[in-house]
Design a protein that fits this description.
Blueprint (H helix, E strand, L loop, with lengths): L23 H18 L1 E3 L2 H10 L2 E3 L2 E3 L2 H10 L4 E4 L6 E4 L5 E2 L7 E3 L6 E2 L3 H13 L20 H10 L6 E3 L4 H15 L2 H6 L3 E6 L5 E2 L1 H13 L3 E5 L2 E2 L7 H22 L5 E5 L2 E4 L4 E3 L3 H16 L4 E4 L10 H17 L3 E3 L3 E2 L4 E2 L1 H19 L5 H4 L1 H7 L9 H10 L11 H6 L5 H15 L7 H15 L2
Parallel strand pairs: 1-11, 6-18, 7-20, 9-10, 10-12, 12-14, 13-15, 14-17, 17-18
Antiparallel strand pairs: 1-3, 2-3, 4-5, 7-8, 15-16, 19-20
Helix pairs in contact: 1-9, 2-9, 3-9, 4-5, 5-6, 6-18, 8-9, 9-10, 10-11, 11-12, 12-17
Length: about 475
Amino acid sequence: MIWGDKMQPSYIENRSISLNVLSVSQREEIHSTVLAVLEEVGVVVKCSRALELLKSGGAFIEGEKVKLPRVMVERALRSAPSGFALYDQKGSSKLLFEGKHFNFGPGPSTTYTIDPYTLKRRRPCKQDTVNAVRVMDALENIDFVMDFGTVEDVPTRYADLYQLQAILENTTKPVVHWGFDAQNCHTIVDMCTAVTGSLEELQKKPFLALFSCSNTPLLHTVEALEKLIFTAEMNLPFVYVSAPTAGATTPVSLAGTMVVTLAECLSGLVIHQLVREGAPVALGVVAGATDMNTMAMSYGCPEFDLMHAALTEMVHHYGLPLWGTAGCTDSKAVDEQAALEATASIMMSAMSGTNMIHDVGYTEGGNCSNLAMLVMCDEIIGFTKRLIRGVRVDELTLALHTIREVGPMGEFVTAKHTYDNFKSELWFPKLCDRHSYQRWVADGSLTMGEKAMARARNLIENHNPETLESTISNKIEQIVVEASSK
């Protein structure tokens, strides 16, 4: 069995608080069923280049139907790296996507957004991307950025390019982005190499990961695979995502949905590694369940959180990183439902060790982006990080010397130990209110959602992100203009 062949990570993992949904035998049984699906049922592949690669690699081809022998899956799992890093655009600090390191970011491609000033629901425009990225740049618990809504005031065919331009001009944080097709992905890489100076430098210290999605159930489109192939050829980080809906596009059972999801992800992985062995890759899931009352996919149900945690265990069992989903809600407002659903998903994802956690700040089942939701989730992530850090037990924290000094009936407020350690031991919220009732009333009696939107507006207006040098900004502008004029 190839699962044990992966080397253990050299860094220290935080094991203070963790979560396990599946037993070892359950993981084995799920994997065995996935292999049976790939061998007996197969997947449909619409891309001729991918079909050629699969045939040369040993797959059985019947028109566009592909059946994968077990050995091809195991070969791909051996060749894929156990993780990768994304750097900031200066090539200094980095995020690790391996082991149980978890990182949070927003999502892409919502069709609506909440205007931070009028509070009206409307279609996004490019300025919304600018505003959102400025907020993301300022939030300490948002680790990577995405476009947070598909804009409609630029040429539709090239909206992905205009949005990446807005991202690059307003943050230096790592970027996860999607190109509409392989041609736009090529332009996206050109834009990013304008920042790094060369493709080689971008490959050495990538600040960009691209992604595409299969079509559930068990279909790989030409658009998705052309992007996968291009990114593998470029040797840049890539995420191949399955987005199942239990009871609609996959079996209603959670285990059955996981089987279809993993079959899509692993068959995509096989193609990716056939293009270039060892190219950096993560498997991705947005695993929802159908609400049988509305027939809509739920972003806030407990099954959503359970499947993401269980799929994290499966993908980690393979020795690979996982792209997951959390910090989102079915609620239409930043209210009690939103807080409940976002907190549950953030905690489940972090405790299970999902590596790239996106869609933070989404409302309305993923249809609408909301900066107040994003800011509130930043607070929830900070809260969760403190929980997962657990209780440190050593000579310093046991504080025996300080207890002896203070003794019975003393106080610890003025103790040196308190002064030296309170900032590292205690979590300090930015939104949660701990003042008296009278102080809360004097401050306007604001709800969490109202405070979150007020903070978002403040960051839009007052946060000053590091900007690109004018020569680089002008070069990116030229690339976008030339690409969109073809």
